[in-house]
Design a protein that fits this description.
de novo design (two linked rop proteins); Glutaredoxin; six-stranded mixed sheet; two-stranded antiparallel sheet; 14 helices; 8 strands; oxidoreductase activity
């Protein structure tokens, strides 16, 4: 007897059961990209911003946004996401048209979603091995891209699309059937993409105001460098780490603020590298090399080049810089730095800054001491505003 087939394949679900999930998934990707683009922008321009997914060192959307890998072709990656998902949604509109016959455009959508997925894998590897931190909302976009790839593959298979190359040619011909719409829209996307690459505002390039002969600087009675007012209405003492992004962002913000109010505000700099080789509070490797960057700044101070070195070190913000990249622009000699480090005098100054910070209760950077109060991360706006209005 012939065995009965209990697993007969039923009729395929209606086209809408496949199309609608793809549309919803693409919308999720579009919305996720908008959130990530706004978050990326606020990371650089909003002094007190912290995203909801800045959870830990290894799971931190802000760390990913602050990395150089968040920029591709001079445009933030999430902005490319908005651009890409927008184009994908436009093509979905063409795929829904009755003349598409449940086949057309899906091969092209498969190619696009494959490109999205490959780039997602690249970004995931970068997060794992270079940034060493993950972004929850980025992981959501990876899932979206893989889901779009799976659905495009399934629809091609379910509704009997032609062999790949032939189907791709037929998809393009189908798009040209609506050339009064598709060609102008494609042209707009092309022009916008090119314009973004050529002229997108580079808000992520943080920089301080230039130092000039009119910029007042000095040293406190305790030997700490200051910039700003000779007799300030408000003195801000910053404890910072050259490898800390928030320190860099806040320092440049305060430098601009002091530059705008040179007779009101004074900024005093002190070192608090979160480097386990120098800071006893840090028990495991973290910001390795930040202590050495502080020593370079202290050496520059002995040569009356502190603020120039300070701005440069914050701009570079990494441990693997070459000494000549710092010392040459300042007109300083490597041999002079080597001699200064050998006598341990600079290290004693650095360790005193760290000791004073720990005594105050500092456990994170940046920290700002104003009078008897210490503020971690940022300074309440009302304190600065009151000083400026006085």
């Amino acid at each position: 007897m012939r065995a009965r087939n209990f697993f007969k394949q039923g009729p395929p679900l209606a086209y809408g059961w496949y199309f609608i999930p793809v549309f919803v998934i693409a919308l999720i990707g579009f919305g996720d990209s908008i959130y990530l683009a706004v978050s990326h922008y606020r990371n650089y321009v909003d002094m007190g911003y912290q995203s909801f997914c800045a959870i830990s060192r290894s799971l931190n959307c802000d760390t990913v946004s602050q990395s150089p890998y968040s920029i591709f072709l001079n445009v933030p990656v999430p902005v490319w996401g908005i651009f890409g998902y927008g184009f994908f949604l436009f093509l979905l509109g063409v795929a829904w048209h009755p003349t598409a016959g449940r086949k057309r455009v899906w091969t092209l959508l498969f190619v696009i979603s494959l490109a999205f997925s490959v780039y997602s894998v690249v970004l995931a590897l970068i997060s794992s091995y270079l940034i060493r931190s993950y972004c929850i909302m980025c992981i959501l976009s990876y899932a979206v891209n893989l889901a779009l790839l799976f659905y495009a593959w399934m629809i091609r298979k379910r509704f009997g699309c032609e062999p790949f190359a032939s189907a791709l040619v037929l998809d393009i011909r189908h798009l040209l059937n609506f050339k009064k719409t598709t060609i102008p829209v494609a042209a707009v996307f092309g022009v916008v993409g090119l314009a973004m690459m050529l002229a997108f505002p580079d808000y992520w390039h943080l920089s301080p105001p230039p130092l000039s002969a009119q910029t007042r600087t000095g040293v406190t009675a305790e030997g700490h460098p200051w910039i700003g007012a000779q007799h300030p209405k408000l003195e801000i003492v910053e404890f910072t780490d050259y490898m800390c992004f928030q320190c860099k962002k806040m320092h440049f913000f305060l430098r601009r603020l002091v530059d705008a109010h040179p007779d009101t505000l004074r900024l005093v700099h002190r070192h608090f590298p979160m480097d386990h080789e120098y800071n006893p509070f840090v028990k495991e490797p973290f910001h390795v090399g930040a202590g050495k960057l502080s020593l370079i700044a202290l050496y520059a101070q002995t040569q009356e080049k502190f603020w120039e070195a300070n701005d440069l070190l914050f701009t570079l913000g990494k441990a693997d810089i070459k000494l000549k990249d710092v010392l040459n622009p300042l007109g300083l000699e490597v041999t002079g730095l080597a001699d200064a480090l050998e006598n341990r005098g600079l290290e004693r100054v650095l360790r005193q800054d760290i000791h004073d910070g720990l005594r105050i209760g500092i456990t994170a950077t940046p920290c700002y001491v104003i009078g008897d109060y210490a503020y971690v991360g940022t300074i309440p706006a009302n304190i600065i505003n009151e000083a400026i209005r006085r």
